[in-house]
Structure formats: structure tokens, C-alpha cells
Task: structure prediction
Amino acid sequence: MKPFPSFRLAAALLASGAACAAAAGEPSYAQRYSLPEWTQAQLEAEAFAARYLLDATLNPYLLHGDFDGDGRGDVVLLVRDRAQQRMGLAFVHQAGPAPHVVGAGHELGNGSDDFGWVDAWSLFPKGPASPGIEGPAPTLRGDALMIYRTESSSALLFWDGKRYQWHQQGD
Ligand SMILES: [Ca+2]
Result:
């Protein structure tokens, strides 16, 4: 049976995508279509793209939320630094100007500078947060992000107006 033309087109796109990038773990050509258009300028800017690769090993590989609380939707993506392949997260605020990276060479809380231990994540909608094991509940300006090592530990990451902060939930 002959392949459908659309199948051949997809194969050609995959091949060209593989040629221009695709280290293991990077989002596929199709997955990149899920990225909002406004993220492009920030993710393709030299300062970011020369240092980081997007990574799609978590499912879903991006989460939407209003992390800085300005009323406009933002996204968070898993990234790796090109130099040492350390995992981290890039929060991309719609207000810009550039993604905020935690992990991937930037230490945060007990997460170290490599978030390779994270195996699940979910959005924590703006609202009251629980007290952690190291301090009182933070006041959230926007949505926050829960990251997990399942059956081991979890932490809440939230924007304090200047940077992302770590709030340990359990270990
Ligand atoms: Ca926002």
C-alpha cells in the first residue's frame, strides 16, 4: 500500500527537523506547534537559545498559567543547559523580556542546579498555599508550579515579583 501524501509530508518534516536539531528529548516538530506564538521571540533569542535546549521528557511538556500574576497567560517548559545537560525549568512570561530559568545551572532551594530528579509537575492555581515543612505558606501573586519526585518529595515554585522562589512541600 502506498503511503498517503500527508504521511510522506510528515516524514519529510520529521527528517528535516532531525537534521536541524533533535538531540534526544527535544520536542518534536509537532510538539513545537503547541507553543504559543508569542513565546517564539523569547525562546529564539540568542541569549537563551545559545545556552538552553527545550526538553519534552515530561508529559505534558509545557504548562500554561499566569505565573507573574499580570493577568496574561505565561508558560513553563522543561529545559537543559547545552554545556552540561542539567535539567531545569524556563518560565516564559508573556510580558517578557526573557525566560526565567531555574535549575539547568541555576541553584534553587533544595532542587540543586539540576532538576533531573523531577518526574512530574502540575499547575497550582493562585490561591492559598499550604505551609511547607520549612516555613509558613507564601502569598501567591499568580499561579504557581508544583514539581515532584513522585513518592519522595515535592516543592512549590512561585514568582515573588522579582524571581522564582522555592517552597518545600514534603520529602
Ligand atoms: Ca502573566
In short: The pocket of calcium ion is lined by residues 66, 68, 70, 72, 74, 93-94 (CB under 6 Å).
